[in-house]
Amino acid sequence: DSPNPYCEEVRSILSQRLKQWQQDETAPNGLAVLGTPVEALPRLLENTLLSWEYDGVLLIKTVTEAISPHDVSATIQQLRQTVESEFLRSSDRNLVIVIPDLSRCFLRCVEGLDGIEVLQECLLRDRSRFWLMGCDLWAWNYLDRICNLSVSFPEPVALPQLSPEELKTWLSPVCHLADCQFEKEPENGNSENGELEEDFWNSKPEKAYCHRLAELSLGSAAVAANLWLRSLHHLEGEAGIFAERPQLPELPLLTKEDRFLLYSLGLHRKTSVEDLAKTLGDTPLEVFQRVRRLQSSSVIRQHEELWELAPAHYPRLYRDLSNNQFRIGDLKS
Length: 333
Hints:
- By secondary structure, this protein is of the alpha/beta class.
- The protein has 13 helices and 10 strands.
- The chain has helices spanning 4-23, 41-50, 72-84, 114-125, 137-147, 149-152, 164-177, 204-217, 221-231, 256-268, 273-280, 284-296, 314-323; strands at residues 30-35, 58-61, 95-99, 129-136, 157-158, 180-182, 232-233, 241-243, 300-303, 306-309.
- Strands 2-3-4-1-5 form a 5-stranded parallel β-sheet, with helices on both faces. Strands 6-8-7 form a 3-stranded mixed β-sheet.
- Helix 5 (137-147) packs across helix 10 and helix 8 (204-217) packs across helix 9.
- The longest helix is centred in the N-terminal third of the chain and has 20 residues, at 4-23.
- The chain starts with a helix and ends in a 10-residue tail after the last helix.
- The mean pLDDT is 87.
């Protein structure tokens, strides 16, 4: 499940914005929830809304996961069907339409932004509906620069960075199921994590582990979960599973072409080689060769026919692209 601090943040802000919108006809009728390109935003919004209580609101999900990623014409068709539907009209201002993942609705190429323009038109022309949208930070920065997306979705909310304590709480159930134990770190003279809060940390190794995990992952749940999995191993002659000191994997030597491919993959979250080729202006064969090489270094991974960034590599990739003047957001670095 999604971490509770993520869900609580979205529920709190959404309730506030809905109340403002219902009480003031001039208030914004859209809210964008921003996360890294490796966060499971559609699942987060689904989990948040399942446990959300707000009287008098009918939740409608549109531009669903059933649409093929980056099928702009299908996106436009579904958006227009939604706004033209008589069922989805109400004078009571109680309709919330959800777009789980905006990155599926556009492609960085000629005519690839038509779906974004139609979405903005829907929001600005008819203020009787409220729109909730998930969007990754890289795509948000790109689309706001090109399409002024913040006009339609002012004051977006970014997912909070998870603290060591929040990561411990989130990972505890699966750690318990796996009978996971934490290896003791070597002494380094740093007593920052030396004291235990009564009834919270089970051991000093657990506390040191979670503090390091929060630091390395930049507070991202997706990154932290992958770093935790990579740290698990068995010790000879010992029962159970042990978590050793988490480490970030090294990035391979990246070329300029690699960086543009990885940037495009972050913009679109999950995409095919064919769509990547359209965004890069290269042939599918050229892109496929680079994709396979990056896969061999585990920087990207494949799910069915789609490719995505590997969460464990995200912190170092974020720093690398930022240092090379890619505009990808304002995260802790």
